């Protein structure tokens, strides 16, 4: 019995020692995108105006990062048109309201739609130009090859040599074929507006459209909550916060592409 207890204790001790050696995984820090989202959440939470010192102090605590990083994160949001600022005297004030954010996203979405349309049109024009250029180059190359063969035949006939050098002609055909392949490769290298780039733009537009719909739904939910719980009128509430009676319907990207 004592020996059995000692074996069990020794076995358990081995596992205990191993567990003691295990170190907890290091906590992974927030990425730049996650920091931007947290800071944007901080601004939208209170709907207030902040100085840069308040952003560095309160915002850093909300995100959980060093205050020295706040200017860089804030500048990224400003560059993305998600945070607005205005200079009053010698002080800059920063803010983000839902209506301004929705308006900015709608504007960016419309600009991307226009840019996408322009890219598609340019791609079609360039594709047609490349097609014509390829055909022109091939025709020109073929004509030059035929001309060189005819000249060689004429030289042979002028020299009284009616026996055509078959190996010479085969070598020329191979040479011309290699030259043609190289020129076609050069044309392909100059092809612009890769369809994969257009697919990336379409994916960006789809994500933006989803975010716009999500924000619109959140605004409607907030209005419904205030109306039902605070006895407020919908029209008065929208007028107070400059919210339009009806949001503009976003175009369907898939329907746009099919047309």
From TrEMBL:
Residue ranges of every copy of the Mnd1 HTH domain listed in the record: 39-98
Alphabetical list of Pfam families matching this protein: Mnd1 (PF03962)
Alphabetical keyword list: Coiled coil, Nucleus
Domain of life assignment: Eukaryota
One GO CC annotation: nucleus
Cellular compartments annotated: Nucleus
GO biological process: reciprocal meiotic recombination
MF (Gene Ontology): double-stranded DNA binding
Family to which this protein belongs: Belongs to the MND1 family.
Protein name (record): Meiotic nuclear division protein 1
Lineage of source species: Eukaryota, Fungi, Dikarya, Ascomycota, Saccharomycotina
């Amino acid at each position: 019995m004592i020996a059995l207890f000692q074996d069990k204790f020794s076995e358990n001790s081995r596992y205990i020692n191993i567990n003691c050696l295990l170190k907890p995984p290091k906590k992974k820090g927030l990425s730049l995108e996650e920091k931007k989202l947290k800071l944007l959440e901080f601004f939208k939470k209170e709907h207030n105006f902040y100085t840069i010192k308040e952003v560095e102090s309160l915002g850093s605590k909300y995100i959980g990062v060093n205050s020295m990083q706040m200017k860089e994160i804030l500048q990224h949001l400003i560059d993305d048109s998600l945070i607005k600022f205005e200079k009053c005297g010698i002080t800059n004030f920063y803010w983000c309201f839902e209506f301004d954010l929705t308006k900015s996203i709608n504007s960016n979405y419309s600009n991307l739609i226009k840019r996408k349309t322009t890219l598609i049109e340019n791609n079609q024009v360039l594709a047609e130009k490349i097609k014509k250029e390829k055909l022109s180059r091939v025709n020109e190359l073929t004509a030059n090859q035929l001309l060189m063969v005819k000249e060689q035949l004429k030289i042979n006939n002028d020299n009284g040599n009616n026996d055509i050098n078959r190996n010479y002609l085969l070598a020329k055909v191979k040479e011309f074929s290699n030259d043609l392949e190289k020129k076609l490769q050069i044309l392909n290298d100059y092809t612009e507006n890769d369809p994969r780039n257009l697919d990336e733009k379409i994916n960006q537009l789809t994500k933006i459209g989803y975010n716009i719909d999500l924000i619109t739904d959140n605004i409607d939910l907030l209005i419904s909550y205030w109306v039902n719980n605070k006895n407020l009128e919908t029209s008065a509430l929208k007028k107070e916060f400059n919210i339009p009676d009806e949001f503009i319907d976003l175009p369907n990207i898939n329907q746009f592409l099919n047309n």
